[in-house]
Design goal:
Elements lengths: L1 E8 L4 H8 L5 E6 L6 E6 L3 H12 L5 E8 L4
Antiparallel strand pairs: 1-3, 1-4, 2-3
Length: 76
């Protein structure tokens, strides 16, 4: 299962936050973005419970992270 986590980060902390996101187990990609969100992290996990755990317990506590929006990827 894959999810895209859109992240708002405090001004001036984006580079450090993205570096921290890349170190989280289950995060396969993390990038700075332009637009309403400052970064996106791609999570790959066994199920939605693990994705929720990674988001709540690993991504949200990263210094500078203010808000997240998790979008589950669905294959058609």
């Amino acid at each position: 299962m894959k999810a895209y986590v859109m992240i708002k980060i405090r001004s001036g902390e984006i580079k450090e936050a993205v570096g921290s996101l890349r170190k989280i187990k289950g995060v396969v990609e993390a990038h700075m973005t332009f637009g309403p969100y400052d970064a996106v992290a791609v999570i790959e996990a066994e199920n939605i419970a693990v994705i929720g755990s990674i988001t709540a317990l690993e991504i949200q506590p990263v210094p500078g992270v203010e808000q997240t929006l998790t979008c589950l990827a669905v294959d058609v």
